[in-house]
Amino acid sequence: MNTQPLPLALESLLSRIAEALERLAPRPRPPVDLTVADAFVWHAEGARLDPVTKVNRVDLDLLRGIERQRETLLENTRRFAKGLPANNALLWGARGTGKSSLVKAVHAAVNQEIPKSVALVEIHREDIPSLPHLLTLLRDATRNFILFCDDLSFDGEDASYKSLKAVLEGGVEGRPANVVLYATSNRRHLMSRDMIENERSTAINPSEAVEEKVSLSDRFGIWLGFHNVDQDTYFAIIEGYARRFGIAISREQLEAEANEWSVTRGSRSGRVAWQFIQDLAGRSGRRIE
After folding, report:
1. Of 153, 202, 215, 231, which has the fewest Cβ atoms less than 10 A away?
2. Domain boundaries in the chain?
C-alpha cells in the first residue's frame, strides 16, 4: 500500500478546497427554544420556528355573537392545556365573523389561566406538506401546541390535503398527544362546490372520489359554524369596543355612524365592526392598544 505523503502543493490545494466547501455549506441551525415565547410562526423553507413576541389579537370578552362557539373552543383548549384528551377544531363560515380572532383570543385566555401551558404555532396554507416535519420537532417537547392554519381550503388538483389527513388521524405515528390543529375556512368541507362536482363527473367511482376529500373535514372532532351577525349584535360589538378604548360618543350617534359604515361595506360582521372602530378612534384622536 502506498503511504507516501502528498506533495505540498496538492495538499495545500485540497485544504483550500475543503475550506471553501465548508464556507459554502449552510451551518446547522441551533435547536429552537420552544419556551421563549407563547406563539411561533412555522417557515417550511429553512424548517424554522420564529417566535412572536406580540400576537395580533383582541380580548376574548370583546367577541360578541359567537358565545356558543367561544365556550366550546375555550373548554376544549382548557382540557388540552391540562394534558387531557382534546379534539382538532374546524372553524368555518363567512369571512370576517371572528374565526381567527377566536382562536387567538382563546389561546391567550387559557395561558392567562394556566401560564405557559400552550404555545400557538401558525402554519401557512402553502406549508401544509411540511406538517410531518414540524410534528417531528414538536413531538418530544415538554409543552402543548396548537397548530393554527388560517383560511384553509383546497382547489383543483391540489393533493396536499393528503398530508393533512395523515397528520390528523392516519400515519404510523399519528398525531402527537401534545398537538392539536385549529383551522379556519370559508368552506365547511374545505373544498369548493366546483371541485366536488368535478370529482363526481370525472371519477370512475364518483362517490368514492368525493368521499376521499370530503372526509378530511371529518378528521376534525369539533365543527364550529360562523355567520354574519344581526344588527343588535353588531351594535353590541361596536359598543363594547367603544367602552374598552374610551371613545366618548353618544349611543345614538355611535349606532347611526356604525349603521352607515355597515351599509357602505354591504355587511355586518366582527371585522366590519373592528374596521369602523379603528376609523372612529382615529377621528377621535384615541389610540387602540
Report:
1. 202
2. 39-226, 231-284
| CB-count exposure of residue 102 (10 Å: 0-12, 13-18, 19+) | buried
SS3 79: helix
Eight-class DSSP state of 214: H
84 Cβ contact partners less than 8 Å away, ≥ 6 residues apart: none
Q: How many CB atoms lie within 10 A of CB 182?
A: 28
Return all residues near 11 (Cβ < 8 A) that are at least 6 apart. 5
Q: How many CB atoms lie within 10 A of CB 171?
A: 13
| SS3 call for 234 | helix
Which CATH class, in words, describes the domain spanning 39-226? alpha beta
- pLDDT tens digits along 194-208: 554 455 444 444 555
Residues 6+ apart with CB under 8 A from 58: 101, 104, 105, 274
pLDDT digits (tens, 9 = 90+) for 39-72: 999 998 888 999 998 998 989 998 988 999 999 9
Using one digit for the tens of pLDDT, what is the confidence trace for 126-163? 898 888 889 889 988 889 999 999 988 777 666 667 67
Cα 171 to Cα 131: distance, rounded to the nearest angstrom:
12
pTM: 0.79
